[in-house]
């Protein structure tokens, strides 16, 4: 059995050999068919990017982690530039670049550059580290080995190894980067303030943070009080019965599905349970969370190695579940690789603190007097609600009430919300009285309308143009018409479609 340094060296050599083979495959077809000089230049850039990864491995062996990381990032940038120019160069095959790019991203996730090997005599358990990620840095945690492990490691497997970059996942990536981009950004900001409540629960179960973010982004966008049409509730959208099974219940009138910490704990326990059932098949576990574990067990049977995208599974689940699984995985992938998709998550200091109210105020009033900030142009209403899930946002809280707020708002509260014009204005708006009147009785509706036949009209044209809720036969019967014949000037009764 190899000792740890020898095993680590062998792993690096194998990775280097794989990269060399990948580079050879990327350029090997050029001998069979000459390529234009412009294409060859781009393929050479592809080869150089792969060689740079081997350089990074050598720098790692030498212990120069900073240089290795720089080389690694430079190679990715080189690939992105070459692949972009490939799309505008006749004869260039972009798929070569995409395949290498995808593969190298997965190698980067493996933390083979920054991974710390346990010391001699220590056991590598494969568990995640308890070292926390600095607020706002979770999506770029690759430079910190302990963080990278806890962000990406799932039961000894790198999370990216479990995400198939297929058509559905690519389509979901496009949605998150286009139509859902605003939702993704909101989810990220919301998560940063909820992170200290939710992430420790995932750490305790050895689950990766990127997965937690992916589920949160798809389920609620980080809105703690979200409720679906089917009755799923909370930031991770538990159904009532499932919530009860994992300890989420009504406590003193508060549904703990809305508690970020409790919801994350229950979700982590659910994922841990179902990963065991489905033999660490993440796709099937996510499908069970969305579509029901009973249904997934019946579909899968004993073959837990089956892909979610196998027609036997994919063709039998609902469209919602077909969309859900790749959407969660795509959001998790972007959490890991934002820069590689031209995505910039906002920098958020998610630290929170407690303020004690010096005057009565509701969350709505506090939102008015606190105003907004450069990084929170929409104001603090959602954040305050998320951090204080048990409070009715319209209910004024008495002096002495302790509220959770972003730490950056401690001084802002003292300056703006204790004295001066802003709390007075906020209270005035909050206490505005809206007149209430009983609804007027519905107006009588004539069941029929009258139409005078004009020159050129036929019964068919009248029905098509004026009656969307009836047919020629019905109108003919209402007016005792013979052979559906109408005369100019004749007044017809037509059914009212209101």
TrEMBL record:
Question: Which Gene3D superfamilies does the entry mention?
Answer: 1.10.530.10, LysM domain
SUPFAM superfamilies the UniProt entry points to: LysM domain, Lysozyme-like
Which spans of this chain does the record mark as coiled coil? 39-85
- Which portions of the sequence form the region Disordered? 112-131
At the top level, the lineage of the source is Bacteria
**Keywords attached to this entry:** Coiled coil, Signal
Per the UniProt entry, the signal peptide is: 1-26
Please name the SMART domains in this protein's record: LysM (SM00257)
LysM domain span: 449-494
Q: Where is the composition biased (Acidic residues)?
A: 117-126
Similarity comment text for this entry: Belongs to the transglycosylase Slt family.
The protein's name is: Transglycosylase SLT domain-containing protein
């Amino acid at each position: 059995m190899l000792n740890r340094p020898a095993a680590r060296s062998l792993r690096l050599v194998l990775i280097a050999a794989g990269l060399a083979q990948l580079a050879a495959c990327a350029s090997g077809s050029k001998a069979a068919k000459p390529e234009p000089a412009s294409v060859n230049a781009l393929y050479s850039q592809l080869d150089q990017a792969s060689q740079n990864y081997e350089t990074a491995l050598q720098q790692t062996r030498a212990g120069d982690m900073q240089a290795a990381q720089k080389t690694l990032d430079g190679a990715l940038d080189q690939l992105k530039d070459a692949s972009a120019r490939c799309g505008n160069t006749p004869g260039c095959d972009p798929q070569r670049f995409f395949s290498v790019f995808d593969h190298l991203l997965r190698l980067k996730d493996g933390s083979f550059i920054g991974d710390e090997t346990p010391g001699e005599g220590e056991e590598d358990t494969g568990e995640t580290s308890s070292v926390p990620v600095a607020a706002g840095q979770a999506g770029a945690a690759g430079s910190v080995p302990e963080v990278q492990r806890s962000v990406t490691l799932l039961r000894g497997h790198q999370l990216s190894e479990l995400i198939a970059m297929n058509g559905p996942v690519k389509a979901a990536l496009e949605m998150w980067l286009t139509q859902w981009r605003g939702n993704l950004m909101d989810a990220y900001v919301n998560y940063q303030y909820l992170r200290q409540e939710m992430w420790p629960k995932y750490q305790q179960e050895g689950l990766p943070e990127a997965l937690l973010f992916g589920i949160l982004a798809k389920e609620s966008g980080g809105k703690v009080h979200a409720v679906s049409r089917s009755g799923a509730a909370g930031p991770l959208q538990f159904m009532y019965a499932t919530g009860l099974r994992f300890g989420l219940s009504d406590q003193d009138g508060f549904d703990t599905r809305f508690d970020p910490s409790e919801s994350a704990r229950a979700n982590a326990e659910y994922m841990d349970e179902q990963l065991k059932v489905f033999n660490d098949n993440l796709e099937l576990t996510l499908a069970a969370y969305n579509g029901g574990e009973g249904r997934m067990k019946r579909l899968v049977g004993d073959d837990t190695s089956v892909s979610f995208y196998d027609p036997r599974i994919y063709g039998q689940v609902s469209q919602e579940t077909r969309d859900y699984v790749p959407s969660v995985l795509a959001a998790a992938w972007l959490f890991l690789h934002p820069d590689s998709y031209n995505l910039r998550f906002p920098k958020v200091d998610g630290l929170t603190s407690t303020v004690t109210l010096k005057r009565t105020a509701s969350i709505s009033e506090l939102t008015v007097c606190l105003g907004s900030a450069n990084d929170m142009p929409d104001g603090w209403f959602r954040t305050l609600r998320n951090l204080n899930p048990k409070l009715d946002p319209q209910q004024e809280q008495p002096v002495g009430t302790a509220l959770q707020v972003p730490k950056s708002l401690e001084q802002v509260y003292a300056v703006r919300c204790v004295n001066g014009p802003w709390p007075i204005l906020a209270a005035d708006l909050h206490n505005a009285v809206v007149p209430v009147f009983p609804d007027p009785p519905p107006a009588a509706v004539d069941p029929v309308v009258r139409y005078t036949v004009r020159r050129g009209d036929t019964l068919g044209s009248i029905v098509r143009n004026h009656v969307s809720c009836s047919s020629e036969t019905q109108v003919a019967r209402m007016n005792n018409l013979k052979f559906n014949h109408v005369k100019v000037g004749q007044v017809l009764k037509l059914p009212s479609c209101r």
